[in-house]
């Protein structure tokens, strides 16, 4: 009887220890989802070549986001460039965003894997100014707005970046959009990350993006938590033998 009470106390202590440690598990900086658009293909959803497929996402803590569709003025499908080696390896809507204050948007679905608490911190990508399917040989400016929507399409946070200056033919501008505070993706369902490119002051600027990376933290089990789980296993085996 006494040995049973001791085993019960040990078991309860181990459970409490594991619960505490798991609750305090460390979270490491990570790339939540990323693609460099290499080997991407285009398919037709509403008009010719408006959706980038086969993006070969690298993911950590979220499900594969899948395809990206280009939308003109946020609602109308927009064709993507697919005519040169330059544009085949990036996401580049064929739209002069400096003409009549036009803009394009695209969205990325972020569905957190079961049992994880992922935190979103920033979004980075490379900006190229495109003309006729080729990189511009002069600098161009563009604005970007990065918005996170919750599963009910409510705005969680938005970052506006003004007058990003592209590189020349041999250059590129690196864009980094950091949210005001880390955002825990805790609500059930799919969050939506929206990228909007707009308001270039010069005409002829088709905005292309490359090397897209969505960054944050993903929890990882600690060695102490694993040790606690091992202790529970030992106690369980001892009880079965008795």
What does this structure look like?
The chain has 242 residues and is α+β, with helices and mostly antiparallel strands. The protein folds into two domains: 1-25 and 221-242; 26-220, Jelly Rolls (Sandwich). The chain is built from three helices and 15 strands. The strands form three sheets. Strands 1, 4, 9, 10, 13 and 15 form a six-stranded antiparallel beta sheet that branches. It has a six-stranded antiparallel beta sheet with strand order 7-6-8-14-11-12, with no helix packed on it. The longest helix has 22 residues, at 2-23. The protein is globular. The N and C termini lie close together (12 Å).
Key terms for this structure?
single chain, 242 residues, alpha+beta, Jelly Rolls, 2 domains, six-stranded antiparallel sheet, 3 helices, 15 strands, 19% helix, 42% strand
Summarize the model shown.
With 242 residues, this protein is an alpha+beta fold. Helices cover 19% and strands 42% of the residues.
Roughly how many Å apart are the termini? Answer: 12 Å
User: pLDDT below 50 for ≥5 consecutive residues: which ranges?
Assistant: 8-24, 222-228
Please outline the major beta sheet: 6 strands, antiparallel
Number of helices: 3
Say how many strands there are. Answer: 15
The CATH architecture of the largest domain is: Sandwich
Radius of gyration: 24 Å
Broad CATH class of the largest domain: Mainly Beta
**Helix amount, in percent?**
10-25%
Q: Which H/E pattern describes the elements?
A: HEEEEEEEHEEEEEEEEH
Chain oligomer state: single chain
Q: What is the overall shape?
A: globular
**Number of folding domains?**
2
- Indicate the mean pLDDT: 82
Structural class: alpha+beta
